[in-house]
Design brief:
This protein is of the alpha/beta class. It is built from 17 helices and 14 strands. It folds into two domains: 205 residues, Aspartate Aminotransferase, domain 1 (Alpha-Beta Complex), CATH 3.90.1150.10; 252 residues, Type I PLP-dependent aspartate aminotransferase-like (Major domain) (Aspartate Aminotransferase, domain 2), CATH 3.40.640. It has a seven-stranded mixed beta sheet, with helices on both faces. Strands 9-12-11 form a three-stranded antiparallel beta sheet. A two-stranded parallel ribbon has the order 1-10. The longest helix has 20 residues.
Amino acid sequence: MSDHIKTMGQQFGRRSWAEPWKIKMVEPLTMTTREQRQRAIEEAGYNTFLLRSQDVYIDLLTDSGTSAMSDRQWAGMMLGDEAYAGSANFYRLEAAVQEYYGYRYVVPTHQGRGAEHLISKVEIKQGDVIAGNMYFTTTRVHQELAGGRFVDVIIDEAHDPTSLHPFKGNVDLDKLQRLIDEVGADKMPYVSIAGTVNMAGGQPISMANIRDVQALCHKHGIKVYLDATRMAENAFFIQEREEGYAHKSVREILKEFCSYTDGAWMSAKKDSLVNIGGWLAVNDANVFDKARNLVVIYEGLHTYGGMAGRDMEALAIGIEESVQDDHQRARIGQVRYLGELLNEWGIPIVQPIGGHAVFLDAKRFYPHIPQNEFPAQTLAAELYLDSGIRGMERGIVSAGRDPQTGDHRYPALELVRLTIPRRVYTQAHMDVTAEAVKAVYDQREATRGLQMVYEPEYLRFFQARFARL
């Protein structure tokens, strides 16, 4: 049992805890038979992204746009100003980003990858190198399409699923310095920092580390940009684990962390509790001017950026709700509840348990399946077959191919992500999920891998198709 749950148990005289909200509306779920699921997964080419949601029981594919909005957010939807230009909701969104994240200028986008695209177009030239604390799929693609090359400078512990390092999202400063020495600071427009690091298992970066990264980068004239998609969750981990922050609020920690960066992009569909939306925020007026010009080409006018007014209003409210300590405590507590159940049963997962998901370690789950037979893709399909629970692959399929050689990239981590939407499922759903994973684990030795039979050019994990070997 995690420390914060123990603390709550002591406070209330019991060991259990409850979410800081009550249910006002429900959405019925559909149970399917194994025969129905077999047909569905075959039609989907053993890719859980290609399943129809009506065939899914508990959907843990992603926390992106799948959270439950609050009554305040739904009420805010009725205040949507759908003016094409100068929507009042944009100015409320702009004020919320400035207040809680601290950046000067805000450009709205339809979601996070829209913001990734803008900053890549503005900052990256052909031949540039972008260092970061582990790649993320869409981020790296936009950087490569803009002519850049991503280089991983995360600490080595991040690639070890058994390491208990409290901040596995930290940048290795020696790796970063060597890269600067090798390619030259003039070839590095910015360092790309993610908080938390999705592909490492939802692992946080420390406040001390971002301070050091800023100092090193600014010494060489290199900017620091933040993927703030799950930064509120990262702030909770800093509050819990880093000396000097136990008595600071998530809100205070978030704003301090952002102060060590030059700008950020945000997929608001995660931390900010909305179904669609994102933004790019910077402190440099020249970068802002270029991004505000490009957003008109690719997203929409600079006062809506691909969002409806009602969505911007819900997002402004969601930003405020996302930094509440009770919300983050319950949100991360539910993820830990699932992870601790699996850990108690000896099922291999990434440690420490991350902020938004539990990551199953497919290499240790299926040691007999080689990586080029897609063990994580296999595990995601097997879990769906067993129970109708949908997770997603985060391994060799997600890593894609090296653009120079055309060969598969072979990441050290071969994972299945069980992503918990915010304010959606109960602890009983977590129990059902844990029991389903155990059932699949108990049958692991009889499981065989997959072969890829269709591969799209970009971001293949979304649309690739597989067949049984």
